[in-house]
Each structure stands twice: as C-alpha cells, then as structure tokens.
Amino acid sequence: xxxxxxxxxxxxxxxxxxxxxxxxxxxxxxxxxxxxxxxxxxxxxxxxxxxxxxxxxxxxxxxxxxxxxxxxxxxxxxxxxxxxxxxxxxxxxxxxxxxxxxxxxxxxxxxxxxxxxxxxxxxxxxxxxxxxxxxxxxxxxxxxxxxxxxxxxxxxxxxxxxxxxxxxxxxxxxxxxxxxxxxxxxxxxxxxxxxxxxxxxxxxxxxxxxxxxxxxxxxxxxxxxxxxxxxxxxxxxxxxxxxxxxxxxxxxxxxxxxxxxxxxxxxxxxxxxxxxxxxxxxxxxxxxxxxxxxxxxxxxxxxxxxxxxxxxxxxxxxxxxxxxxxxxxxxxxxxxxxxxxxxxxxxxxxxxxxxxxxxxxxxxxxxxxxxxxxxxxxxxxxxxxxxxxxxxxxxxxxxxxxxxxxxxxxxxxxxxxxxxxxxxxxxxxxxxxxxxxxxxxxxxxxxxxxxxx
Length: 453
What we know:
Layout: H1 2-13, H2 15-34, H3 44-51, H4 58-66, H5 82-97, H6 99-105, H7 109-143, H8 155-183, H9 188-198, H10 201-214, H11 220-242, E1 244-251, E2 254-256, E3 259-261, E4 265-271, H12 278-287, H13 289-296, H14 303-308, H15 314-335, H16 338-347, E5 350-351, H17 359-392, H18 397-400, H19 405-428
Helix pairs in contact: 2-8, 2-9, 5-6, 5-7, 6-7, 7-8, 8-9, 9-19, 11-19, 12-15, 15-17, 16-17
C-alpha cells in the first residue's frame, strides 16, 4: 500500500503526465455525459416505458455495450465509435487487397495522413447508413409497443434528426478519441470503447452480489469464487495478449569510415495472438446472420437455425469457436507477411542463425508463426465462449460477459497500453516503475504489425 501511494505521488509530481491524465478524464466525462443526452423528437418518459431496459442481447446488445449504454438510451452518442471502427477495419483490409492503398501505406507519414482522411470520410458514410438503420429501429419500437408512441415529430423530420445528430455525435466521439491520443494517455479510440464497456461493470457487479445474497443462490461464497475465477481469466488474457515467440536475428558487421556497425543480436517478437480481438468480431458478425435472415422469413422454423440463435446451445458454441480459430489464422496471415520480414532482414544485413537468408528465412518464419498461432487461436476461442460456460454455472448474464469475449480482451489490452505509457513517463524521469520487478508491456510492444483494438 505504501508503494502504491508513493507511485501515485510520483505520477502527480510529473506535470506533463498529470495534465495528460486530467485532460483524458475531462474528455471521458464529456463522452459519458453525451451518452445520457436523448435525441430531440423523443419523449424521454414514454421511451423508457417502451424499451423496458433497452437492448440486452444479440447484435444490438453488443453495440449497446460498446456505446456505453447510449444505444439503448437513444442518446446523441447512440452509435458510439463503432462506425469509425468499421471504417478503420475496411481501410485496413483495403491496404492489403488493393495495390493503390498498399502503396499509400508504404509512403510513410504522408500516406498515413491520406489513409486517415479516407477513413474519416468512410466513417461519415458508414454512420449515415447506420443512422438510417437506427431510425428504422426506433420507429418499429415506437409502433410495436402497445401504442406507446414516443416519437413526437413527423417521420421525415425525425429521420433528418437521426441522420444529422447521430453522424455528428459519432464524428465528435472520434474527435474526442483523437484528442486523447494526442494530448492524453493511451490510445483514445480504444480508451473510449473500454470506458463504454466498463461503465456497466459496477451495476453488473452489484446485481450479481444482490442476487447471490438475497435470492438464496448460495450466499457470499459463490460470489467470492466468481471474483476469484474472474481474476484467473484476466491473468490468462494478459498472457494471451503479451505472449510472444522471439526469433533471434544476427546482424552482420559493417565498417563505415572508422566506425563499426552491426554485429549485435536482436529478436523478432512474433505474438501468439497477432490478430487481437478481430477474429471474435468477425465470428460474431457471421453468427448474427442466421437470426437476421430468419426475421425476413418468420413462418419458416428450422431446429438448426433455432440452435444458431441460442447463444447457450452446444451447436452455436462449437461453430462459433471453430470460426474464431479460422479467422485467427486468416487475420494473422493477412497482417503478418513472412516474405516481407525476410526481405527487410536481408536488406539490412540481418539473418536468422542456422537459416539461409531470403526464401528459407520466410519459410522458417511462416512455420513458426503457424505453430504458435494454433494454441493462440484455441485459447482465443475459449475466451470467446467463456461467458456461456460461466452462465451455465449460474453466473448472471450481465456479469458473465466480463469473463471473456471482446469485452475482456479490449479492457485488458487497453489497460496494459495505458499503464505502459504511464510507466514510460515515470522511467524517463528516473522514477521507479509501476512494478517491483520487470516492466509492463502493452499490446504493441515489439509487435511487427498493428493488432486489433
């Protein structure tokens, strides 16, 4: 405890770090405040009666989780930062599949600025499309709840309000994230997503405690066991996020003038989970398709489709876990290019001891990557379906989602990145780090390629 207080004092004494933390807290407060500001044209009291708790499951529940509850509250930040994430993923795939975008990525800072500009424009298009979908969702909700019509303006005017305000809200959220990145601590976009997720943690924790104590569900002991298991799962996710396989690289000696360069040994850190949370996001998107298609054919009933719509069924979780494994290999393959790594090593006079430069090095890196991706993908699949297992053992559905899936991986990754940046500020000013031994490593520490959020 004494060391913790001393570390907090050291953080407060660093003026630049103190300003960054306070600046980030201020922008996060604005973001949370905006998630409670309801859209114009909606009667707030009637809307609360109509939603009865808001979106709680499926795709809408996932969007609501990332938006910090703003989706279910019909706030000006209802879409949150998700349209920007969708646009960023699309641009990342374009830089791999389209040669012109790939050339832009290799142009350095100027190319990165152009890609960021295209991403912003694409965000506007994606947000406008999703805002129209959100208008349809609110309109169907207003017309299908026993006559509780909470929309107090005409349909045309309300559609215009949704388009303008929701698009502006997403762009403003994107601006907040960029400002946190530039003048705050951590990655702003990821930080806002984490804040939206973690905002529901206190209420879920209180509800779980209340249900255990007041409803004769085992008392306090099962609740303590749940917290202990949550700590174990978090530790496992930290290992998954930070785990790497280091490939030794030797650089040849070069003499330039009177100076000697090279001759030292370094490492290529290949991450066990180079794909981040992207495989889970892609797999979830595919698993939502059967339920979406069935809405257009309500009369057709299929036992297989019904199982795919049941998140607790064995069929759903087997297919879901299998898709996570496949997408882990797929996303790792398109983000890490062993041939490019081998060529870069050859150009800079580096080689892997015992392996010939060029094609043989590329094959060696590819084999190592394939071997470490298998256990990483299996563990990622277990993390993805962990909330279902915890629910089967009696954990409440709201609290269970913090035991795995995108929620836990994003929280662990963002917290590690933020703590790493804070520790860097401490070490630069000759203070002790946040740990007695070792150093905190974020998701991007030594990474060859960018990973998901």
